Protein: Thiamine-phosphate synthase
Amino acid sequence: MPAIHSDNIRHALKLYFIMGSINCKANPLHVLSEAIAGGITIFQFREKGPTALIGQAKFELAKQLQTLCQAHRIPFIVNDDIDLAIAIGADGIHVGQDDEPVSSLRKRLGPHAIIGVSAHTLEEAQQAIQDGANYLGVGPIYPTKSKDDAKESQGTRLIEQLRAQGILIPLVGIGGITLDKAACILHAGVDGVSVISAIAQADSVRDVTTQFIREIEMNQLNVID
Ligand SMILES: Cc1ncc(COP(=O)(O)OP(=O)(O)O)c(N)n1
Ligand SMILES: Cc1nc(C(=O)O)sc1CCOP(=O)(O)O
Ligand SMILES: [Mg+2]
Structure:
């Protein structure tokens, strides 16, 4: 059974931690376990970049991180790698605009898989919704050092535009999100924030995660309950 039914994805998106081995100052298993202790609500394994693990080493790290998530009922999402997601029975996948279309992913992953799609424009968002995405990642909100090919940062403009159009799909903001910036993104209408470096690189992963949760709970709009 998946850790979460896709109907509950909105609540799970509250604090979406994304990480691969290259993002961590400490052992990735330790970083994830501290982030879980701090209160993350969903995790994405994004093993990407020049020194990223590949092959069996990538598979083994994914399995170890997934086991940790399963023990704490944290949904485990795989970035980009559909074969890996299927091989380990992940709860879902996150894909970008140049990846396999949602309709084909749905056939391969089944009706309960969480499928997240990155959207940078209203048109991309509408297409992903029509194709059956469960949530959208909107970014980069602010400049980021964690993605080499990130687009130009766009602030909260698209989030506000989507909500103003009455689009209710679960949304998560991404890109350069730090503690002091979370409130303004939440006020724009997202269900949660996605974070790599502000958590993975923190001196105390657990403390900063706890502070994110507090900030989110104080500023969440609750698009739908
Ligand atoms: C939650 C979330 N939102 C956006 C992204 C970015 O996905 P993508 O555009 O496919 O870029 P890469 O992460 O693959 O470099 C994401 N991963 N997660
Ligand atoms: C993985 C990713 N996707 C983005 C997008 O805009 O789609 S920005 C980004 C990196 C986010 O990392 P950090 O929290 O360290 O800025
Ligand atoms: Mg991608």
